[in-house]
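Re: Re: ligand-bound prediction request (bumping)

Still looking for help on this. To restate: I need the protein modeled with zinc ion bound, output as structure tokens. Inputs repeated here so nobody has to scroll up.
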Amino acid sequence: MFWSKVFIPTLKETPKEAESLSHQLLLRAGFVRMLMAGVYTYLPLGLRVLEKIQGIIRQEMNASGASQLLLPALHPLELWQKTGRDKDIGEVMFKFVDRRGRDVVLGPTHEEIITDLVRTQISSYRQLPLVLYQIQTKFRDEIRPRFGLIRACEFIMKDAYSFDQDKEGLDKNYQLMYEAYKRIFKRCGLTVLIMEADSGIMGGKESHEFMAPAAQGEDLVLLCKKCSQAKAFDADSLLCSKCNFQMDKINTIEVGHIFKLGIKYSQALGANFSNASGELKPIIMGCYGIGVSRLVSAIIEQNNDAQGIIWPKEVAPYQILVLPLDVTNSQIMQEAIALHDQLASLGFQVLLDDRDERAGVKFKDADLLGIPIQVVIGRNSLVEQTLEIKVRLTQEKIIKPRQEAIEQIGRFITI
Ligand SMILES: [Zn+2]
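Reply:
Sorry for the wait, this slipped through. Here it is.
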């Protein structure tokens, strides 16, 4: 793909409204733009990263036996009244009355909606267990939207729900999700702390939060360096309960949260099943969330340097950036296009910077965008039949004969 066709509006200056590093880089590198506070447009590069993350989540969810569906964003308020959450989280709900006079809510989460669906479709233990998930836009009327995609009013979440006939089934599905989450965050290039957490407004007994350490994260976590136990910040219990070691205070971003809900929602909404003895029982539920759009920011918070973003390989918008240094030189452009086509035919995602800009501008933008491999094509490449590879992460530069260089790029990207 040619840079000039993609729409990558990079900025030289850091916009004043951007409070966090990830927000600054997302704006400067042309990944997102703000429509109003807490509401963002994903530009082509931002959307590509978002889709990469969604792809990883989808693979890992499907591998765990979960099945994807898509629930509506518009909900009748009535369903929320049945669980009482119209009051519990009422202040963050976008509510309005439609032209038929119905009270309507823009979904901030979907426990009520999926439980109502299951209530009407599941009646027997033979239909259980079942795990369903969706990747969808949610709406929350945040008091103070901040830090770009980290605390937004309109954001994308993956939410999964498990339905079981007994506690053992719930434990098994919970563990499957716990392990899938670890794989998802690892593949996204994120380090996370996992801590036992309060179930809060979700209800239920057991829950774990997945917290990504980040300098400007809003959630404080205590971490024991000796045994790696993590827990929510509490000014009274700074010592580790396991080894009595002084715990470190760490700023984090919450990127995932899993809950054993039990029967809170199935009981309130009448989602029952007949067990093997013919008795009617409420379905036992779990729910499992990942802040998908927030992950984009968390990944940047952990993967950057003074020059810009350093995308982990699996979530980079493109894998290779080809940089012809003089686009007015037809031989250089011919070689750049030939290389682009060859790499693309090998299955790589390649961006070619075809802008008529000074080399310095191109190098700066290349580092700002953070594509893992840069390939520079100048006069020397033509004379010597070589390619200059730059690895964004290490800033290492390697000059090799053309074919050898292509093989090396392949190895770097696939390992
Ligand atoms: Zn400890």
